[in-house]
Amino acid sequence: MASTAGKVIKCRAAVAWEAGKPLVIEEVEVAPPQAMEVRIKILFTSLCHTDVYFWEAKGQKPVFPRIFGHEAGGIVESVGEGVTELAPGDHVLPVFTGECKDCAHCKSEESNMCTLLRINTDRGVMIGDGQSRFSIHGKPIYHFVGTSTFSEYTVVHVGCLAKINPNAPLDKVCVLSCGISTGLGATLNVAKPAKGSSVAIFGLGAVGLAAAEGARIAGASRIIGVDVNPRRFLEAKKFGVNEFVNPKDYQKPVQEVLAEMTDGGVDRSIECTGNIDAMISAFECVHDGWGVAVLVGVPHKDAVFKTHPMNVLNERTLKGTFFGNYKPRSDIPAVVEKYMSKELELEKFITHEIPFSEINKAFEYMLKGDSLRCIIRMQE
Ligand code: CXF
Ligand code: ZN
């Protein structure tokens, strides 16, 4: 056991004191892990849109002060009571949704929506005892999605940690904690395009490009990127996107444009914007008889999906996915191996790298739409 085991650790963390205000690097106290919890040293973390969204807290329940961050790679420092499968020194990726291995979802081969550890963005405390493990002079600082990786040390439920190959570079594979696995899994686990097939990707941000990477790996021959920002296409080519459609260039609905381009519709489509009209287009652009559309983007809370039932009766399938249908503990280690064997490329997602002290820059890059993933180095 590390000499710090069982003790409070003082370390640096980026605290969001208020919605939308720059994070402040503070010295925080991190309590030891309790039953079924693990304290980890974060080496690298990266920024995902969800951090920005809940930091802005526009229409979201504001939970502050809070430590954001949910894409990261770290090393186990100490484990709490009842943790048998992880030990100090193990390399792990924290995941915002968990796998208890005991609930009906975890026991089902078809689901990754664990009842116990499913994401709850309003909760700022650990599920075990309803307390926070972070404090400053005894005042609690709240957690975010059970991960809070914008801290040199954090405490995570064992069910939200994927134990990975210790040879995997954490400054690359940390992006597999959320966005990249989500897009990749949407294609490989849910859309499952056949070799030589056509795939339309709506939204060419990091998640959409990860979906494209999945289509490239699956051997799709036409990967059609759909985005209202023409700047995205140049970058998308690196991810196998070989055709581009900007809906703004046409008078007619984009589903009609795609149907004309593909002799009746694409074989698969993956929606990664969360825009409700894009979702409807993504569904209606798939070929009748066999087309499958997969929704990934998170819509506005009042959004309603409207389509004529004939579109379904004509044998189009609509699916949705959460975290690319990956079970965090059972499946993510193998995704890391896909990177290790060079089947999956991660470097092209990493557009920026900064030291922890400059973490606010990562928010600026993302808000300007300049970055895909910005890696934050915790050790300077
Ligand atoms: C998202 C997935 C959908 C709900 C909010 C969080 N994942 C991580 O960024
Ligand atoms: Zn995320």
From TrEMBL:
Protein localization: Cytoplasm
Keyword Transferase: no
Subunit structure: Homodimer.
Domain Alcohol dehydrogenase-like C-terminal: 206-337
Record-stated family: Belongs to the zinc-containing alcohol dehydrogenase family.
Keywords on record: Cytoplasm, Metal-binding, NAD, Oxidoreductase, Zinc
Main location group: cytoplasm
InterPro entries tied to this protein: ADH-like_C, ADH-like_N, ADH_Zn_CS, GroES-like_sf, NAD(P)-bd_dom_sf
Domain of life: Eukaryota
GO CC aspect terms: cytosol
EC numbers for this chain: 1.1.1.1
Cofactor: Zn(2+)
Catalytic activity: a secondary alcohol + NAD(+) = a ketone + NADH + H(+); a primary alcohol + NAD(+) = an aldehyde + NADH + H(+)
A GO MF label: alcohol dehydrogenase (NAD+) activity
Pfam families from the UniProt entry: ADH_N, ADH_zinc_N
The protein's name in its UniProt record: Alcohol dehydrogenase 1
Annotated SUPFAM superfamilies: GroES-like, NAD(P)-binding Rossmann-fold domains
Example of a GO biological process term: formaldehyde catabolic process
Domain Alcohol dehydrogenase-like N-terminal: 36-164
